[in-house]
Amino acid sequence: MKKLLLLLILLLPIFLLAQGPGPCTPTLININLDQYPSETTWDIQDTLGNVIISGGPYSNVPNYEPQFIVNCLPPGELSFTIYDLYGDGLEGSIWGGQDGSYYVMQCGDTLVYGDSANFGYDTTHVFISAPCPPPPPVPGCLDDDYLEYNPLANIDDSSCVTLIVYGCTDSTMYNYDSLANSMDNIAQCTYDLILHDLIGNGWIATTLEIYQEDDTTSFTMTNGGFNQAFTIDLYAPAPVSAKLFISQQAQFTAVECGFTLIAPNGDTAITVQPPFIIPFYMYEGFTYCGNICEEIVYGCLDTLAFNYVDSANTADDCFYYPGCISPAYLQYHVDTANAYYTDINIEDSCGTLAMFGCTDSTAFNYDTTANVDNGGCLPVVMGCMDGFAFNYNVLANTPDTCIPFIYGCTNVTALNYDILANTDDNSCIFPIFGCMDPLALNFSPQANVDDGSCIDVVYGCTDATMFNYDPLANVDNGSCIPFVYGCTDSTAFNYNPLANADNNSCVPYIYGCTDPSALNYSAQANTEDFSCIAYVYGCMDSLALNYDSLANTDNGSCITIVVGCMDQSAYNFNANANIDNPLSCRYSAGCVTGDSIPYWLNDPCYAWVIDIDNYCCDNEWDNICQATYDYCDGTWSGPLPVRIKNNIVIYPNPANQLININEKVDVEIYNNLGDVLISEKQVNVLDVSKISPGAYIIRIKHNNSYIYKQIIKK
Q: What pTM, to 2 d.p., does this model score?
């Protein structure tokens, strides 16, 4: 498709020039031939039957070869007709081949679908050729450095947010990058391309083209065998496509061809085995060269270790002392005896079984057959081994002198100590020191030796936890008074008259408002002084529209004063204003000169001029209009210009006494009820001083026609 679009772009200027002057739309005509290309012709005609473009027959092209024709067609209704000389359309399948098809495309749309191959001798499709519409706006991120990038977008909508961070995003890999949000794929690698031949005689006049981006690479079999291998460098990850081209010479041997495109990891991107290949058909695939992620390889990373693994990237146990690791063998114990502690076993390093026992020849239990000392050697112990003797030694293993038992008191501190006894018979009488005075507080009837410790009796409260505890008393007389803790300061807020022990809890009186719902509530106060102030919510900003002088708590309701014109009929009505300034309102007269040109309707002289002279509002503001305005304004000097063609001017209006008319005319004045109040003929000054103030209608007869105007009597 890329080659087709490139062909369309390259050839379009040529066809535009060939088309001549006038608008036209680039058009692609695609004819997919069957195995009888010489039978097919086609043309495109306008509504008058004029042939704009035609093609075929295709006598010198290979069977099935697609035909692409680019042209620029004029707008309007056109008809596409395809013909078959034999009368079987493009239905090659009825003769054992493949069906053909045809399409007409403009602006990315297919206008003619030729999917039905059995059209007989001919078939016609009517379609409308029209200029290509501009592409619709597609908002999105236009920067491909961001995750939000939309390749279809053509209008930036500021949706680019997340910068792409490439890295290994597989958390199971050794070099996983937690900051990465896009897998860093390997951009290019070498693929294996294998060309197949079903018969084994190679390819003739046949070529396979591989397309990727703007690169095209051609391959053909040259070895005459069943398979021939090639290598090709491809970008990844990216689309890849392939197409088999044949000449007319090879159209009957194309079914023998095939190919397989294989990735470095063994995955097949595209494969078509003979005899199923279709010449000129675009086969699509997708390349993948892997990514930068590295598998976790466990092993010892210390180059000094016995089991160092140079391919490892993740630490595992290291071993430094190879040898015999089994304590059942002599070699293990020889190593440990020499401070060599084996941490990994080596095959055939254990030879002699260990014989455990006492290897000390001076020990009581020396074992001549042992080769590994078990730490159980017993020393020779001389002593009496007679269990009935006084000096029997249970630990002795070699006999020595025995001594008989002599019973008596053997304690030198006892009153009846026997110096000859070697075995105590529990007859010792020990001295018991104490007070032997029965009248003393601490008299001890068990004492047999007075130690001078007698204490006289002293009565009082002996409970140290009591308020009146007497440290000199040794006999409690029931007079104890318990402690009552509290504030003993009679001037304090929490004075306790029952307390006898001050606990430093006194709190002074703190006067204030104790009501939590009051504005001036004091959390420190403990005594109400009746100063509480209730909350009054409102706007406290004196510059605000709704300022409340009684409020003491601002509730955020303040409204900013906005002064402006609040008359909705005014030109400069301000919907946000909340204070009306009627003097600021400007009103449009709705005249052809436009709003405020030359004056606002607020201007009384301007209102008077356009009232007495409609020309000034309905047509233009000319010199007569301005002179009339200046007359009203008091700045006019000289005679007033006269408007011709019945342009009667009445002034002043409003008037107090006299009304001037720029020509002598017949005039009548009516009230709102239609009553005639004044009637004069051929006058140019009218006295209105005797009629009441208000609005009246004046009728003027001029040149056999009547003019009606409104006047105001002040």
A: 0.41
